[in-house]
């Protein structure tokens, strides 16, 4: 067992031509313990690779983690006579694990050969975010939920495609609307002639609950079908190392945002978002730096996970005590047919806290094969083509309420900032300060085991990329500079870069 | 059948290999073809038989046909529960597990469907939640609520219940057939060129997208065994048991309607036995035991005995006066017997983790 990390002299390498501002500590090349002392060592590959508590928790913390683990897999029920009730009335899934498969990525629906549009059914790992876009920037006020996306009237900022029995008299098990997906396929050709097929999921919505036939225009209408409604798919993301990302010092992130990488066209920017914990504490301006969500639209694991519990599954909790469709016409219809829906908070505070703790303390697996010459070469190429400008290799974490997460040397490969990733990935939806083209740099730690954990797991915000290579080829906008460098590399260097990513 | 040909080919390769001298490649091949893939083809067959038994009962609702349908449900549970030491690959990637075995079922919504007016067809089931179909929905409809007995009178069945039973058992068989096909023939419905998953897992190498080495597959097998030992001890058994009689919770007991919980748990541990010893049905070949025996024959034999002991201790939970696990956890002596099984399973888990897992990539 090689549990000890090889200590290398810290070598600061300057990128020759491009930009003197991108100084990167190259110790990441052979660093094994991606999560510092929280790292677990898994030599092979296994579907269980992400399912481990941080290695340095106390026994009592491990007990809480394991309780949270059970809750993460709990199928919530909408049977009011059961202890685990709380599902719905509308939702995207019945348990956390269904989107975060074995604490890893989700997958897009299967599109059988020959099929075109397929409906999103049960047990899908993707949903649509929705909002009204007026193209303007608004100051953050209480009235606009501190700059949050504008919810679609009669809906919210998330489309819930599933519902409890009876929510839709006309469509059993349906929620607010039916969602369909198909692929648009294109080919990317490298300068050396190699061709890679890329696929992009397209979505459409039918059967909205407020749908009606407009005899004047001869069209079927719903507030959801109007032109000012923007929709963007969101795929379930890996759960590992989230508490460590929470423990990165804000000053470190701001320092990365302050770098001048204009020679590469890179301008990382923080998001400032509504913070439920500040709001609960009575803070007059409940806004914090965003760290989680695909556009950094939540500030903490607490906010992200309890928001998901209430939204994705429909289980109200002390942070988010109101059902997501409360007060809408769908809610009123449901109450008219079924009597008043109980307004008691569904998840106990203990259940909520255990889920948050679990989400903060999933271990990052160690790197593998770090001494393979190809992997070492790939690690160097990773910097040579400036991936490190956004996929910032390492930090030392600051304080955290969970001591095991504090003061750890970690290698997440993210600058925690937003970047314009170009039109190919854009969803056109603003989210607080994030534009319709900006996405948060995804952490890359543990990514090498993604498809052992979920063989169909997909990369990028909507799971479109089936391989690391496809994911890289979708990079545009601020990442165009690096992508162009990558595609012009000799084939063996491209392979080496992919081998390095596989080793993470 | 393509699958049959593959299995015969595999059999002739494996049978006759001396288990002690087996290589990692031989262990992986035997377990992949003759334990895992065989379990899934058996599951597909059993679900097809359940569909027939349910249809016969619906067409001719007699006590005898009800008993046959109930018996077939129990038979069908066997290959499924005996697959839970290897819940990796297509069963997970294709989202099949929740379609077959979501617990708890959603009784209030099920009652809503039964009381409603929608035509209960296969198409309807396809649109319903994972908690409105699969094993436990069929179980509830066939056996009743499980409170005072594990059966219900034929007179209690309504025509809509028959419709629901027929539709949901048809869908169960569809999913099980898809799972077997994914292992034998094609694991990726989006890529007709993809082979069966049995090929993927039995040929690990650096270019294999999922398993880069033999050690990786052995680790998957060992972690799978550890996972179900932990799940049975600390989830399926300990959760409903609670800290004391006062906190025992029937709502957490899996398979409570048929009183089949103890059989479920035993079959879960049987799946460990199959992977470990390489024994499935009448076929025996090298399992993970052969890996252990290479380094420590005494330990290899002890672990086999420990697995058998766990199965026996689970059987011993059964109350002498009738009933099942759901009844045992409400008596002091039943809880004591249950605690013994938990301790043995946790000890087995520790042995697998500390003494077997490190051998995976030695």
Keywords, please?
heterodimer; A: 504 residues; alpha+beta; 3-stranded antiparallel sheet; 12 helices; disordered N terminus; B: 362 residues; mainly alpha; two-stranded antiparallel sheet; 16 helices; 65% helix; globular
Molecular structure report:
The complex is a heterodimer of chains A (504) and B (362). With 504 residues, chain A is of the alpha+beta class. Chain A has 12 helices and 18 strands. In chain B, strands 1-2 form a two-stranded antiparallel sheet. Chain B is globular, with a radius of gyration of 21 Å. The N terminus of chain B is likely disordered. The interface between A and B is large, with 45 and 56 residues.
Order of helices and strands of chain A: EEHEEEEEEEEEEHHEHEHHHHEEEEHHHH
Helix/strand structural class of chain B: mainly alpha
Oligomeric grouping of the chains: heterodimer
Helix content of chain A: 10-25%
Shape of chain B: globular
Order of helix and strand elements from N to C terminus of chain B: HHHHHHHHHHHHEEHHHH
Largest interface: A-B, 45 and 56 residues
Count every beta strand of chain A, where a strand is a DSSP E run of 2 or more residues. 18
Mean pLDDT of chain B: 92
Q: Give the total of beta strands of chain B.
A: 2
Q: Supply the number of helical segments of chain B.
A: 16
Q: Largest sheet of chain B at a glance? A: 2 strands, antiparallel
Strand order of the largest sheet of chain B: 1-2
Low-confidence stretches of chain A: 1-21
The separation of the N and C termini of chain B measures 38 Å
The coarse overall form of chain A would be globular
- Approximate helicity band of chain B: 55-70%
Look at the helices and sheets of chain A and give the structural class: alpha+beta
């Amino acid at each position: 067992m090689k549990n000890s990390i090889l200590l290398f002299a810290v070598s600061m390498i300057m990128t020759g031509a491009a930009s003197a501002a991108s100084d990167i500590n190259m110790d990441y090349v052979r660093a094994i313990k991606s999560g510092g002392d929280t790292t677990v060592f898994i030599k092979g590959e296994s579907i269980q690779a992400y399912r481990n508590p941080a290695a340095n928790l106390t026994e009592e913390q491990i007990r809480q983690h394991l309780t949270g683990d059970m809750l993460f897999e709990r199928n919530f029920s909408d049977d009011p006579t059961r202890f685990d009730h709380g599902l719905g009335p509308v939702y995207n899934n019945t348990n956390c694990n269904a989107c975060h498969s074995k604490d890893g990525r989700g997958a897009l629906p299967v599109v059988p050969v020959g099929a075109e549009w397929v409906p999103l059914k049960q047990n899908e790992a993707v949903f649509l975010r929705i909002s009204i876009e007026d193209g303007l920037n608004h100051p953050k006020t209480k009235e606009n939920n501190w700059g949050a996306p504008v919810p679609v009237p009669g809906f919210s900022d998330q489309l819930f495609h599933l519902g409890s029995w009876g929510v839709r008299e006309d469509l059993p098990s349906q929620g607010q609307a039916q969602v369909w997906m198909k692929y648009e396929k294109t080919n990317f050709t490298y300068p050396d002639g190699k061709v890679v097929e890329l696929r992009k999921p397209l979505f459409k919505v039918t059967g909205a609950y407020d749908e009606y036939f407009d005899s004047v225009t001869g069209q079927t209408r719903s507030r959801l079908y109007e032109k000012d409604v923007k929709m963007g798919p969101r795929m379930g993301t890996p759960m590992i190392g989230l508490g460590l990302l929470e423990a990165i010092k804000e000053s470190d992130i701001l320092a990365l945002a302050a770098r001048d990488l204009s020679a590469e066209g890179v301008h990382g920017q923080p998001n400032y978002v509504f913070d439920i914990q500040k709001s609960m504490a009575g803070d007059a301006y409940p806004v914090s730096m965003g760290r989680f969500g695909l556009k950094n639209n939540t500030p903490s694991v607490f906010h992200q996970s309890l928001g998901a519990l209430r939204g994705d599954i429909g289980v109200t909790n002390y942070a988010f005590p109101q059902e997501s469709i409360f007060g809408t016409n769908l809610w009123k219809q449901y109450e008219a047919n079924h009597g008043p829906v109980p307004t008691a908070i569904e998840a106990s505070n203990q259940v909520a806290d255990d889920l948050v703790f679990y989400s903060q303390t999933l271990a990052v697996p160690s790197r593998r094969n770090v001494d393979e010459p190809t992997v070492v070469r790939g690690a160097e190429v990773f910097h040579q083509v400036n991936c490190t400008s956004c996929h910032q290799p390492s930090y030392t974490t600051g304080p955290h309420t969970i001591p095991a997460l504090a003061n750890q040397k970690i290698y997440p490969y993210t600058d925690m900032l937003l970047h314009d990733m170009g039109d190919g990935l854009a969803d056109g939806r603003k989210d607080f300060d994030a534009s319709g083209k900006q996405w948060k740099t995804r952490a890359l730690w543990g990514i090498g085991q993604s498809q052992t954990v979920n063989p169909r797991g997909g990369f990028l915000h909507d799971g479109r990329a089936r391989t690391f290579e496809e994911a890289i080829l979708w990079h545009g906008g601020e990442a165009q500079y690096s992508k162009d460098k990558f595609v012009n590399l000799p084939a063996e260097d491209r392979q080496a870069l992919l081998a390095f990513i596989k080793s993470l | 059948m393509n699958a049959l040909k593959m299995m015969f080919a595999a059999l002739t390769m494996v049978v006759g290999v001396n288990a002690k001298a087996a290589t990692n490649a031989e262990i992986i091949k035997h377990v992949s073809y003759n334990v895992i893939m065989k379990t899934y083809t058996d599951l597909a067959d059993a679900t097809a038989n359940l569909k027939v038994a349910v249809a016969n009962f619906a067409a001719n609702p007699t006590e005898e046909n009800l008993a046959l349908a109930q018996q077939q449900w129990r038979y069908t549970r066997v290959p499924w529960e005996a697959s839970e030491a290897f819940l990796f690959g297509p069963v997970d990637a294709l989202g099949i597990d929740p379609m077959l075995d979501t617990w708890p079922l959603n009784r209030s919504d099920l009652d809503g469907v039964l009381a409603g007016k929608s035509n209960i067809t296969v198409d309807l089931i396809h649109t319903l939640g994972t908690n409105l179909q699969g094993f436990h929905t069929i179980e509830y409809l066939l056996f009743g609520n499980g409170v005072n007995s594990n059966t219900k009178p034929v007179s209690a069945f309504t025509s809509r219940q028959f419709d629901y039973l027929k539709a949901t058992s048809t869908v169960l068989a569809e999913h099980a057939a898809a799972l077997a096909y994914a292992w034998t023939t094609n694991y990726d419905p989006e890529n007709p060129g993809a082979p069966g998953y049995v090929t993927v897992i039995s040929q690990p190498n650096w270019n294999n997208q999922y398993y880069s080495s033999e050690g990786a597959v052995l680790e998957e097998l060992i972690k799978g065994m550890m996972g179900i030992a932990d799940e049975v001890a600390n989830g399926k058994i300990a959760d409903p048991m609670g800290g004391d009689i006062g906190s025992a919770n029937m709502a957490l007991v899996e398979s409570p309607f048929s009183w089949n919980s103890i059989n479920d748990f035993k079959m879960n541990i049987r799946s460990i036995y199959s992977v470990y010893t390489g024994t499935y049905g009448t076929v025996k070949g090298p399992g993970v035991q052969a890996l252990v025996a290479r380094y420590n024959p005494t330990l290899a034999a002890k672990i086999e005995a420990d697995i058998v002991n766990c199965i026996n201790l689970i059987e011993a939970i059964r109350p002498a006066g009738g009933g099942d696990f759901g009844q045992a956890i409400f008596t002091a002596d039943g809880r004591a017997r249950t605690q013994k099984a938990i301790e043995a399973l946790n000890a087995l888990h520790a042995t697998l983790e500390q003494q077997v897992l490190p051998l995976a990539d030695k």
